[in-house]
Amino acid sequence: MGTPLEPREEQVEEVLDRLYEEYPDSTISLNYSNRLELLIAVILSAQCTDERVNEVCADLFETYETPEEYANAPQEELAEAINSITYYNSKAEYIRSSCADIAEKHGGEVPDTMSALTDLAGVGRKTANVVLQHGHDVVEGIVVDTHVQRLTRRLAITEEESPTKIEQDLLDVVPEDDWQQFTHLMIDHGRATCTAINPDCGDCVLADICPSEKGDGDVDLASGEAW
């Protein structure tokens, strides 16, 4: 069982230092060439792997290019084009509705504010933060996906449970200059080592400062359940 540093700011600093060294090329893993493609890829990525999204989008982005084309695509046609994605029917509806609003209300351009983005169908703070950061170079929050939720709780950086509350809590302890990379580092480490099931604590660069380390720890702080 590792021992987290106190206060939390020191724990975050040490986690960042080690993960920056472990994953020096950490960045977004979705493929896109413009803001609209980024928005659509992120909508599709909810509860789906980036690898699968990239496979689907390779053909999707050749078929549809403009917001109008997505908005005018028949529901059945667009759903069929993304049918290997989780919740593809709902996501097809989100894409068509969002693109209609982009075409009609935003001059065909993906919005550059949190409020305008979250007004689009299927776009919450997580999606909006990704689009702002990687589409508009605007960093005003921390993207909290399942990896960030799991790792920040395991590492005793937060005790909050919902993504919204976790983000607000992290903004107080993660240096603003690291807000964007914090997410990428958590995702990389979550995929490589600190997986949801059976994490590889024996080969983890954070084991000695992680209170959830299962060598001696009894509880996975991410779930609150015993290992």
UniProtKB/TrEMBL annotation:
<dbReference type="InterPro" id="IPR003265">
    <property type="entry name" value="HhH-GPD_domain"/>
</dbReference>
<keyword id="KW-0255">Endonuclease</keyword>
<dbReference type="Pfam" id="PF00730">
    <property type="entry name" value="HhH-GPD"/>
</dbReference>
<feature type="binding site">
    <location>
        <position position="194"/>
    </location>
    <ligand>
        <name>[4Fe-4S] cluster</name>
    </ligand>
</feature>
<dbReference type="GO" id="GO:0140078">
    <property type="term" value="F:class I DNA-(apurinic or apyrimidinic site) endonuclease activity"/>
</dbReference>
<keyword id="KW-0540">Nuclease</keyword>
<keyword id="KW-0378">Hydrolase</keyword>
<dbReference type="GO" id="GO:0003677">
    <property type="term" value="F:DNA binding"/>
</dbReference>
<dbReference type="GO" id="GO:0051539">
    <property type="term" value="F:4 iron, 4 sulfur cluster binding"/>
</dbReference>
<feature type="binding site">
    <location>
        <position position="201"/>
    </location>
    <ligand>
        <name>[4Fe-4S] cluster</name>
    </ligand>
</feature>
<comment type="similarity">
    <text>Belongs to the Nth/MutY family.</text>
</comment>
<keyword id="KW-0408">Iron</keyword>
<keyword id="KW-0238">DNA-binding</keyword>
<keyword id="KW-0456">Lyase</keyword>
<dbReference type="GO" id="GO:0141016">
    <property type="term" value="F:G/T mismatch-specific thymine-DNA glycosylase activity"/>
</dbReference>
<dbReference type="InterPro" id="IPR023170">
    <property type="entry name" value="HhH_base_excis_C"/>
</dbReference>
<dbReference type="InterPro" id="IPR003651">
    <property type="entry name" value="Endonuclease3_FeS-loop_motif"/>
</dbReference>
<dbReference type="GO" id="GO:0006285">
    <property type="term" value="P:base-excision repair, AP site formation"/>
</dbReference>
<dbReference type="Pfam" id="PF10576">
    <property type="entry name" value="EndIII_4Fe-2S"/>
</dbReference>
<comment type="function">
    <text>DNA repair enzyme that has both DNA N-glycosylase activity and AP-lyase activity. The DNA N-glycosylase activity releases various damaged pyrimidines from DNA by cleaving the N-glycosidic bond, leaving an AP (apurinic/apyrimidinic) site. The AP-lyase activity cleaves the phosphodiester bond 3' to the AP site by a beta-elimination, leaving a 3'-terminal unsaturated sugar and a product with a terminal 5'-phosphate.</text>
</comment>
<dbReference type="InterPro" id="IPR011257">
    <property type="entry name" value="DNA_glycosylase"/>
</dbReference>
<keyword id="KW-0326">Glycosidase</keyword>
<feature type="binding site">
    <location>
        <position position="210"/>
    </location>
    <ligand>
        <name>[4Fe-4S] cluster</name>
    </ligand>
</feature>
<keyword id="KW-0234">DNA repair</keyword>
<keyword id="KW-0411">Iron-sulfur</keyword>
<keyword id="KW-0227">DNA damage</keyword>
<feature type="domain" description="HhH-GPD">
    <location>
        <begin position="44"/>
        <end position="192"/>
    </location>
</feature>
<keyword id="KW-0004">4Fe-4S</keyword>
<dbReference type="Pfam" id="PF00633">
    <property type="entry name" value="HHH"/>
</dbReference>
<dbReference type="InterPro" id="IPR000445">
    <property type="entry name" value="HhH_motif"/>
</dbReference>
<protein>
    <recommendedName>
        <fullName>Endonuclease III</fullName>
        <ecNumber>4.2.99.18</ecNumber>
    </recommendedName>
</protein>
<dbReference type="GO" id="GO:0046872">
    <property type="term" value="F:metal ion binding"/>
</dbReference>
<keyword id="KW-0479">Metal-binding</keyword>
<feature type="binding site">
    <location>
        <position position="204"/>
    </location>
    <ligand>
        <name>[4Fe-4S] cluster</name>
    </ligand>
</feature>
<dbReference type="InterPro" id="IPR005759">
    <property type="entry name" value="Nth"/>
</dbReference>
